[in-house]
Write a structure and sequence with these properties.
Length: 139
Protein backbone atom coordinates (compact mmCIF):
# COMPACT_ATOMS: atom_id res chain seq x y z
CA UNK A 1 0.00 0.00 0.00
CA UNK A 2 1.43 3.38 -0.99
CA UNK A 3 0.20 6.60 0.55
CA UNK A 4 1.43 9.56 2.55
CA UNK A 5 -0.04 10.96 5.74
CA UNK A 6 1.23 14.04 7.48
CA UNK A 7 1.93 11.89 10.54
CA UNK A 8 4.02 9.31 8.65
CA UNK A 9 7.52 8.88 10.09
CA UNK A 10 10.48 7.73 7.99
CA UNK A 11 12.60 4.84 9.27
CA UNK A 12 15.58 7.08 10.06
CA UNK A 13 13.42 9.49 12.07
CA UNK A 14 11.68 6.62 13.88
CA UNK A 15 15.10 5.25 14.84
CA UNK A 16 16.14 8.63 16.25
CA UNK A 17 12.89 8.95 18.22
CA UNK A 18 13.21 5.44 19.65
CA UNK A 19 16.95 5.68 20.35
CA UNK A 20 17.86 2.69 18.16
CA UNK A 21 19.55 2.14 14.80
CA UNK A 22 17.83 2.28 11.41
CA UNK A 23 18.58 -1.44 11.05
CA UNK A 24 16.73 -2.22 14.28
CA UNK A 25 13.63 -0.38 13.03
CA UNK A 26 13.86 -2.25 9.71
CA UNK A 27 14.11 -5.59 11.57
CA UNK A 28 10.98 -4.70 13.58
CA UNK A 29 9.18 -3.85 10.33
CA UNK A 30 10.38 -7.05 8.61
CA UNK A 31 9.28 -9.18 11.58
CA UNK A 32 5.84 -7.53 11.63
CA UNK A 33 6.36 -6.06 15.10
CA UNK A 34 6.10 -2.52 13.70
CA UNK A 35 3.60 -1.92 10.87
CA UNK A 36 4.83 0.16 7.94
CA UNK A 37 3.69 1.25 4.50
CA UNK A 38 5.47 2.87 1.55
CA UNK A 39 5.37 6.58 0.79
CA UNK A 40 4.95 7.84 -2.81
CA UNK A 41 8.76 7.65 -3.25
CA UNK A 42 8.76 3.98 -2.22
CA UNK A 43 10.39 4.53 1.18
CA UNK A 44 9.13 2.67 4.25
CA UNK A 45 7.17 4.89 6.62
CA UNK A 46 5.42 4.24 9.92
CA UNK A 47 2.12 5.88 10.84
CA UNK A 48 2.71 8.23 13.77
CA UNK A 49 -0.04 6.56 15.82
CA UNK A 50 1.51 3.12 15.24
CA UNK A 51 4.94 4.40 16.25
CA UNK A 52 3.50 5.99 19.41
CA UNK A 53 1.74 2.74 20.34
CA UNK A 54 4.93 0.74 19.70
CA UNK A 55 6.98 3.19 21.81
CA UNK A 56 4.53 2.94 24.74
CA UNK A 57 4.39 -0.86 24.59
CA UNK A 58 8.17 -1.27 24.35
CA UNK A 59 9.37 1.48 26.68
CA UNK A 60 11.87 0.18 29.16
CA UNK A 61 12.69 2.59 31.91
CA UNK A 62 15.42 1.63 34.34
CA UNK A 63 14.14 0.49 37.71
CA UNK A 64 13.30 3.38 40.03
CA UNK A 65 15.79 3.07 42.89
CA UNK A 66 13.77 5.24 45.30
CA UNK A 67 10.80 2.95 46.06
CA UNK A 68 8.56 5.85 47.07
CA UNK A 69 4.88 6.59 46.48
CA UNK A 70 4.33 9.79 44.52
CA UNK A 71 1.60 11.65 42.70
CA UNK A 72 4.11 12.73 40.06
CA UNK A 73 3.81 10.67 36.88
CA UNK A 74 6.91 12.00 35.16
CA UNK A 75 9.73 10.11 36.85
CA UNK A 76 12.91 9.89 34.79
CA UNK A 77 15.60 7.55 36.09
CA UNK A 78 19.03 8.65 34.99
CA UNK A 79 22.70 9.07 35.60
CA UNK A 80 24.11 12.26 37.11
CA UNK A 81 26.65 13.54 34.59
CA UNK A 82 27.70 16.87 36.07
CA UNK A 83 27.33 18.87 39.28
CA UNK A 84 28.32 22.54 39.34
CA UNK A 85 28.15 24.11 42.79
CA UNK A 86 28.89 27.32 44.59
CA UNK A 87 28.46 27.97 48.32
CA UNK A 88 24.65 28.18 48.09
CA UNK A 89 23.28 26.69 44.83
CA UNK A 90 24.07 23.75 42.56
CA UNK A 91 23.20 22.80 39.00
CA UNK A 92 22.74 19.05 38.61
CA UNK A 93 22.76 17.61 35.09
CA UNK A 94 21.38 14.13 34.44
CA UNK A 95 21.19 11.92 31.38
CA UNK A 96 17.81 10.15 31.39
CA UNK A 97 17.82 7.92 28.34
CA UNK A 98 18.16 10.24 25.35
CA UNK A 99 17.17 13.28 27.43
CA UNK A 100 19.30 15.69 29.41
CA UNK A 101 17.56 17.01 32.51
CA UNK A 102 18.95 19.93 34.52
CA UNK A 103 17.89 20.76 38.07
CA UNK A 104 18.79 23.71 40.26
CA UNK A 105 18.88 22.99 43.99
CA UNK A 106 20.70 24.04 47.10
CA UNK A 107 24.26 22.82 47.53
CA UNK A 108 23.19 21.60 50.96
CA UNK A 109 20.65 19.26 49.25
CA UNK A 110 23.30 17.99 46.84
CA UNK A 111 25.51 17.02 49.79
CA UNK A 112 22.65 15.58 51.85
CA UNK A 113 21.49 13.39 48.94
CA UNK A 114 25.03 12.34 47.98
CA UNK A 115 24.59 13.58 44.42
CA UNK A 116 27.75 13.37 42.35
CA UNK A 117 28.68 12.46 38.78
CA UNK A 118 28.02 8.77 38.29
CA UNK A 119 25.17 8.55 40.83
CA UNK A 120 21.86 7.11 39.76
CA UNK A 121 18.97 9.43 40.56
CA UNK A 122 15.36 10.08 39.63
CA UNK A 123 14.27 13.41 38.12
CA UNK A 124 10.68 13.99 39.19
CA UNK A 125 8.86 16.51 37.03
CA UNK A 126 5.53 17.90 38.18
CA UNK A 127 4.58 21.02 36.32
CA UNK A 128 1.37 22.93 35.93
CA UNK A 129 2.64 24.42 32.68
CA UNK A 130 3.92 22.19 29.91
CA UNK A 131 4.47 23.66 26.46
CA UNK A 132 3.95 21.32 23.51
CA UNK A 133 5.46 22.32 20.16
CA UNK A 134 5.15 20.71 16.75
CA UNK A 135 7.38 21.09 13.69
CA UNK A 136 6.40 23.81 11.25
CA UNK A 137 4.99 22.31 8.04
CA UNK A 138 7.08 23.08 4.95
CA UNK A 139 4.96 25.27 2.76
Amino acid sequence: MTHARSSDVRVRDAADLLGVSDDTVRRWIDSGALPATKDPAGRAVIAGADLAKFAREHARAPADPTSVESSARNRLVGLVTQVTSDAVMSEVEMQCGPFTVVSLMSTRSVHALGIEPGSVAVAVVKATNVIVETPKEAG
